[in-house]
Amino acid sequence: MTGLPILEIDKISKSYGAVKAVSDVSLHVNRGEIAGLIGPNGSGKSTFFDCSTGLQRPDTGTVKLDGQDITGWSLNRIAREGRMLRSFQKTVVFKALDVEENLIIAGQMFTFPSLLSTFGIGRMSKQRISGLRDRARELIKMAGLWDVRHQPAGNLSGGQQKLIQFASMLMPEPKIILLDEPMAGINPKIIERVIETILYANRSLGVSFLVIEHNIDVVTSICQRVVVLDQGKKLVEGLPHDIIADERVREAYLGG
Predict the structure, then answer these.
(1) Please, what sign has the CA dihedral across residues 24, 53, 188, 206?
(2) What's the mean per-residue pLDDT of the chain?
(3) Which domains does the chain have, with CATH numbers?
(4) How far is CA 65 from CA 25, 73, 97, 138, in A?
(5) Per its UniProt record, what InterPro entries does this chain match (predicted)?
(6) Percent of the chain that is helix, strand, coil (3-state, to 5)
(7) How does pLDDT run across 94-129, given as a tens digit for each residue?
């Protein structure tokens, strides 16, 4: 991990009326790193994500992606760039389309200017579809969804749909992905698959991650560094096992 961090967030603050949801929080993610963001409910994690990814505009502070100041950019503009993507706690897939079609559509949205340019008639259109299909199939295998690739996404479990969503996010080859509670509401077997998929994307595809997660076992197994928020402020930052052993974290997050 050399050079500038892929993501630099400096002194972000956000208030809603008299409530200060995030107060002067700074955080960075190095290239090739999986960083964790933890804290009790109401600590400001999701607001911090929203301000970092254009869903909300911060009151103060700056966000730099790959050295470029993107403070105030809209969520759509940041996503359209394809370099930084984020997930939400609610899983969203095209339920009537099969797994492979979900990924192809996701790739088309970032790669080509219109549906017509991808799915129109002609040699160029066929080449585009072929390229998207090849990448989609690679990612489907990575996510362990090969046997269900032609099933409608709506027929699959919630955990499998999370894997579809995650694989779809990899279609435009992003540099960093922000994941908001990727393990929430899925069974242990699927959690193992999600972990394997994140690690594969990080090690083999070079994708950096910032992950909000309540499952401490997951945090300690995949994250190289962890930042803890409490009451909208950064409480502590460090190596996962040091963070878990920190008395301040136990009081704020783990209940002592």
Answers:
(1) negative
(2) 90
(3) 1-83+175-256 (3.40.50.300), 93-173 (no CATH)
(4) 16, 11, 33, 27
(5) ABC_AA/LPS_Transport, ABC_transporter-like_ATP-bd, ABC_transporter-like_CS, BCA_ABC_TP_C, P-loop_NTPase
(6) 45, 25, 35
(7) 999 999 999 998 988 776 655 555 555 566 666 777
